[in-house]
UniProtKB/TrEMBL annotation:
<feature type="domain" description="SIS">
    <location>
        <begin position="380"/>
        <end position="524"/>
    </location>
</feature>
<dbReference type="GO" id="GO:0046349">
    <property type="term" value="P:amino sugar biosynthetic process"/>
</dbReference>
<dbReference type="InterPro" id="IPR035466">
    <property type="entry name" value="GlmS/AgaS_SIS"/>
</dbReference>
<dbReference type="InterPro" id="IPR035490">
    <property type="entry name" value="GlmS/FrlB_SIS"/>
</dbReference>
<keyword id="KW-0032">Aminotransferase</keyword>
<dbReference type="Pfam" id="PF13522">
    <property type="entry name" value="GATase_6"/>
</dbReference>
<feature type="compositionally biased region" description="Polar residues">
    <location>
        <begin position="42"/>
        <end position="54"/>
    </location>
</feature>
<protein>
    <recommendedName>
        <fullName>glutamine--fructose-6-phosphate transaminase (isomerizing)</fullName>
        <ecNumber>2.6.1.16</ecNumber>
    </recommendedName>
</protein>
<feature type="domain" description="SIS">
    <location>
        <begin position="552"/>
        <end position="697"/>
    </location>
</feature>
<comment type="pathway">
    <text>Nucleotide-sugar biosynthesis; UDP-N-acetyl-alpha-D-glucosamine biosynthesis; alpha-D-glucosamine 6-phosphate from D-fructose 6-phosphate: step 1/1.</text>
</comment>
<dbReference type="GO" id="GO:0006002">
    <property type="term" value="P:fructose 6-phosphate metabolic process"/>
</dbReference>
<feature type="region of interest" description="Disordered">
    <location>
        <begin position="24"/>
        <end position="61"/>
    </location>
</feature>
<dbReference type="GO" id="GO:0097367">
    <property type="term" value="F:carbohydrate derivative binding"/>
</dbReference>
<dbReference type="InterPro" id="IPR017932">
    <property type="entry name" value="GATase_2_dom"/>
</dbReference>
<dbReference type="InterPro" id="IPR005855">
    <property type="entry name" value="GFAT"/>
</dbReference>
<keyword id="KW-0808">Transferase</keyword>
<dbReference type="Pfam" id="PF01380">
    <property type="entry name" value="SIS"/>
</dbReference>
Amino acid sequence: MFTGLKRLEYRGYDSSGMCIDAIDAPTPTGRRESASGDGLANGSSADGTSSSNGRVEDRSSPIIVKCPGKIENLENLTAEYVQQHNLDTSKVYKHHVAISHTRWATHGVPSAINAHPQVSDANADFVVVHNGIITNYQALKDILKKNGETFVSETDTETIPKLLKFAYDSMTAEAGSGEAQVPFPKLVMEVLTKLEGAYALLIKSRHYPGELVACKRGSPMIVGIKEGPDGSSSSSKVSSGGLGRAASITRLRDQYNDSHWTGALEAWVASDASAVIEHTKRVVVLEDNDVLHIVGGGYGIYNTRQADVETAVPRRLQVLQLEVDQIMKGGYEHYMQKEIHEQPEAITQSMRGRVKQQKSAEQGNPYLQQRIKLGGLVETRDTIRRSRRIMFVACGTSYHAALAARQTVEEMVEVPVVLELASDLLDRCCPIFRDDTCVFVSQSGETADTLRALEYAKARGALCVGITNTVGSAISRATHCGIHQNAGYEIGVASTKAYTSQIICITMMALALAEDSISKRERRDAIIDELGALPDKMRSFMQVQDVAMKELAAQLKDSNSLLFFARGNNYATALEAALKCKEVALIHSEGILAGEMKHGPLALVDEHLPIVVVATRDSMYNKMESVIQQLLARSARLIILCTAGDATMQEYAKRSDCQLIEVPGTVEPLQPILNIVPLQLLAYHMTVLRGHNVDQPRNLAKSVTVTD
């Protein structure tokens, strides 16, 4: 459980907790303050009574431990609890249900009381962990209070277990005596009809020992399956029968006799594949409104939007293309550092099998016409070309990637290109038409605002294209077609390799759409040639710049602000570099379009404020040189990012105190990919020198799966 939680640390959290079954749980009910006063541990019996030896004999008794702060705090509190109550941690049970959670505060401050799991009552009849936000929780809370319920936390989540208990009591009263009259998934489905908002839920109950229900709407969730008498993976079986407490569930254990049972049938439910990859690569990706019921060595999946909610729905078993070493740091100190240095390989993987060469149709012509082959766009390529406009919709770093490639799409496809921040598009109810193509860019494929914008665009008949780095993500499933980035797993909260990979993917999309244009052929070929050379160019300067950026970071680490000036494609570079400094180094920074310098930003310039100017050799070079001259005239503290060997910039460095960051040159559409690397390294080293957490920056999460 702890390992799984640690695999999810990168998503951001401020408290954690867990609930496990234990036959040796202590009798006293209620919460026990830890010695440090910053955690809660709870041991409750099923009926609130004690046995003669002071131990709980009911197998369904839960132990709940939760606390604010790091997972290490939870480990220590759990160890203290186990030691104090002499629990036997060596026991292995055939059936065991445990749930755990890392919370990111949305309702209520980070505290032990507000941490998950949340319970229905002192006896913990129902125990719930929850990702997401229940938007109508206050109305539900008011109703429950009128029915005598009391609340102890400030969370929206607490309404869920209390609603489950209220529904359970009502439904069992109607059905008569006997708890088995109300199947667990049916009870949960009844409660889900009352919830509004986004959620991924894990639910266990003492009324349903050995059972677990998981459900999702708008938040990611997968289930990893490991089967077989020896614990090995075999063919997965999903129920196709009717809803019931046990009859509807595929009873995998019935294939094996207890007398020769030498292994376990195991299922792991998580919000991310990284938490299950060490146990199995076989996963089922749950879809919105799915309800997963695990019991008796099998599982069934139902969907509340189906006409017949009591009939299980088929869900495809997938094999993860992920290795354990991909989620480890290797020889690096931080994931962000590792992922910056992985970028040459990441962009190579993004291009692998997609950059092709094919002989010209003209016989005897030795000229090889290079091609871009994107299988995900083959059937919709002509539709995209005929679009009235192409609209890119994204958030944060993904938005910057689309901005960096916008000019390339406009040049190659000759269709108007519009960029939209997903939240702003929704706020404005932006007009979208049937002849629009909307491209949704998201590393995780689960970004809440981008998903809502996708639903909005689909409802208006637009062709929807997805660019994501996660197979089976919500965006990849909901779009009509798309491109998988293949950049590899990214764990650091500050996106690095996903950003450069997204630029590559959008550029390849533009080249593929312009494939039949004779007038664009020469330009296309030049870009494609440079695509092939890009990984080696990136490798050639990365180690040198790593050392140089560490030295520069030492000079800038105490700065209160940092400005980045750029134009053209590199305006995205300025915005992305500023975002990285804000995210991880916690330095106020801004990316400024250099053409707007005289409309306000120039007033900030003095000899103390560090300013990074992106002035590589491209169509904006002369204009950026003018910007540099104006800044030097005002005694600005300049750092110039320029093309390696640029004599003009080297002369500026000699005549003034400005510093140079030199990068290899390439064609203009690809230059932002090289330019961002030293600035990523700069942000990384400033973060380390300032003593901040690189991979888990303050108040931020990797995947933003809830909306404001």
